[in-house]
Structure formats: C-alpha cells, structure tokens
User: What shape does this take?
Amino acid sequence: MGSTYIVYADVLFITNFLLDYVILWATARFGHFGTSHLRIFFGALLGACYGVLMIYPELEFLYELTTKVLFSFLIVILVFPRLTIKKYLQATACFYGISFAMAGAVLGGSSFLSKSPDLFQFLNIKSTALIFGVAMAVILGRWGLIYLRRHWQKSQFKISVEVFIDKKSLTLEALIDTGNDLKDPLSRKPVIIVEYQAIKKMLPVDFQQCFERYGGDDVTKVLENCNNASWITQVRMVPFHSIGKHHGMLLGYKPDLVVLFGQEKIVTKDVMICLYHKPLSTSGAYRAVLNPEVFERAA
Assistant: This one.
C-alpha cells in the first residue's frame, strides 16, 4: 500500500517565503545589486505564492521549465529595479547559482541527519536540514565576495571614480574593498577613503594648511584649531578600527558629487570622502578604497 503525504499549504507558503527571502537577500549582497528589504519582501512573497500553486494539479503547466525561467526573471525585475539587461542576466544567474548551492546544502544536511544510508532518503527532506541551506545562502551573501576578492585579480575590483568638490573635479582609480564598511556615524553614508595628496588641490587652501599641520598626528586637532573656517560644516570625524589601532579617526569631507564608472555609470551624493595621509597602494595602482555599499545607496 503506497504512502500518503499530506501537504499543508500554509507551511509550504511560509517555507517558500523564508527560503526565497534568504536567496534574494544573498543575491543582492553577493552581486551588489541595489534593492531594499521591502522589495526583497515582495519578491519572496511572489515566489511563495508561486510555490503554493504546485498543490493544484490543474496548474501543472506553470511548472514547466520555460515558465519557471520567465517567473524567475519577473522576480528579479521586481526586486532589482533599474538594471541594464546585462545586469539583469547577471542577477538571474546569481539567483540561480545561490538557489542551487542552497538546494545542495539542504540535501547534504538531510543526508547528514538521516539515520538510513539509503540514497533515496535524500528526498525526505527534514525541516532541520533547511538550516544547512539557509546557512549556505548567508555564507555566500556575507562572505562570497571576500572569497572572490582573495582569489581573483584585484584589477577586476577596480573602477574609476570622479569626485566633484567646489566646482572642481578629479578622476582617480579606486579599489572596491569588501573589508571597508566605514560609514559616517551621523549620516550613515558609506565612505570612500582617498589619499590626501591625490585630492589635495581640490580642497580649500586654508583646509590644506590645517590638515597638513595637524592631520598627520591627530585629525581631531583639525576641528579643534580650525572650527571657525568656512568649510567646517563639510567635515566629519569617522572612527575606524584596524590591526594595531582600535580607536583611530579619519577626517571626512563631504563632496558635492561622486561618479562611479563601473559596468554602468552611477552618480551619487550619498557618500563621504575620508582623507588618508599615506599612500594606499605601494605600486600606485589605486589611490582610493571604496565601500561597496556606495553602489547599493546609489542604485
């Protein structure tokens, strides 16, 4: 006598929603595709509704391969707006890649938790095995780019950045650094660290004098000794932590505009420039280090 399986639509809906949300979040993080939690929520909601339809035999045609692919594109378009066609294809490929990795982790987790060595026991997915899939998606989302950065050439993570300050502009090479998560503590704007010497001529003359006098030793003295300057409203103190320095400070300067020349041109004001008094690259290959969140804020 064959086994009878009972499928609960509410459980199926919630499971699909949670898994889709994690996959879409990981896709956004891994590929640095601009979106919001609200868009991810609606994308996961749409995916969960689609998943529940499988319990209706008369809607079997919705699960043909072509329909699945088209539905995937629909979710990607909903969650990641204003992308180029090339970017949409990349986002969809990333979505599927993370989905497959997550599915593999779920099957592996099911095998690990199963008491039976029978291969076909894999098909009986335990709810606790889903933790393995969620963990895989989180790992890819949070640490995937760090791994790629370590194993790919750094040149693939460099872009040109044009900075506008007081009707002046300067273009320099910047390294996209996943380890740079600096933000202005007041506005929460992501930070681009720039060599002072590279951007010096764009800054007010009295600011240059003040920074060169005090900035090398203790940037807090710049504010203490130059607090009546006209540019004082443009500067911020940005705390940072690094090896050997747990309570460091960088001096931030608010630019008028920043243009990023990556796979597509991005224009943003939602960024803070932080000045560094030493070279960032010994070879001079780049003169700025960019927080990847700049792309998310600008999208």
Summary: The chain has a mean pLDDT of 76. The radius of gyration is 24 Å.
